[in-house]
Each structure stands twice: as C-alpha cells, then as structure tokens.
Amino acid sequence: MSPNLQAELGAALRSVLDDMSATTAQLIHVLDEEREALSGADAKALNRAGEAKQMLMRRLEQLDVERLHLCSTSAEAAQQVDTQWRELLKSLTQCRDKNQRNGALVGQRLAQVRKALAVLTGNDTLSGTYGQNGALQDTHRSVQLAQV
Fold first, then answer.
1. Is 27 left (phi over 0), alpha (psi -120 to 50) or beta?
2. Of the candidates 1, 7, 70, 143, which lies 20 to 30 Å from 53 by C-alpha distance?
3. What's the whole-model pTM score?
4. E strand spans, 47-102
5. Which residues of the chain form beta strands (DSSP E)?
C-alpha cells in the first residue's frame, strides 16, 4: 500500500475516532440528564433524553462500522490510533456504567409502582406465577374499595 494511501486511511480513522469521542461525550451528558429526569420524575425530560440517547447510539453504531472497515483495510492505521481507541473505550465504559445505574433506578421505580398497584387493586403481585408463555399470571382478586 502506498504511503499516501496509508496516510489518508490513518487520517480517516482518526477522524472517525474523533467523531466517536465527541458523540460519546454527548452521550455521557444525555445519560446524566436522564438520571436527573428519573430522580425528578420528569416524564418530558425523560422522553427527550431517551430520544437523544437513541439517536446518539445509532450514530455510534454507524461510526463503529466505518471504524471497523478502516481498521480491516489498514492494520498500520489501526495501530497508529491504538491510544486514542483505548481512551474512547474508557469513555464508552463510563457510558455503560451510567446506563446501568439509570436502569437500576428504573427498576426500583417499577418495583415501587407495582407495589402501589398491588395495594390499590388488592392483588399481591409477588404471589403470581409464570404461565407457559413466560408471562406473569397473578390471581386477580377484585376488592371493592368504596361505594357511592
């Protein structure tokens, strides 16, 4: 491969990694916003953060396809950006950790809502069983809460 082509591939790969780094930084910010929305029970902000997160994830996936193509085309260019790639992996790990933390918060909120619904409906969702299709089947016990 000619030196000029190697240089172009290296520059293209660095550009893709720069774009991935910028997108990852935006994703970290959006995940922080999502955490605030979850903590504040702000549904509108949570929807905005979710949409932004999906868009950024799609962008990262597109960039990664380009990165993989460039790396497979030139192993030398891939070696030249190894340090930049390792730094990006650290940021992506931070994104994963923040997303898991937000997911745990969603799980806690969901458990609280289920408990509240169990009290309101008189159903103990913890005593339900799983049917053949894997869905939770609880015993629906109707309890009259009030009469007018």
1. alpha
2. 70
3. 0.76
4. none
5. 129-130, 136-137
Q: Which two tokens stand for residue 107?
A: 């799980």
Contact 116, 52 (CB under 8 A): no
Closest CA relative to residue 38, chosen from 117, 110, 127: 110
Asked if 27 and 95 touch (Cβ cutoff 8 Å), the reply is yes
Q: How far is CA 73 from CA 81, 84, 85, 88, in A?
A: 14, 18, 17, 20
Amino acid occupying residue 113: V
Nearest in space to 31 (alpha carbons), one of 76, 92, 83 = 92
Distance of CA 63 to the CA centre of its chain: 17
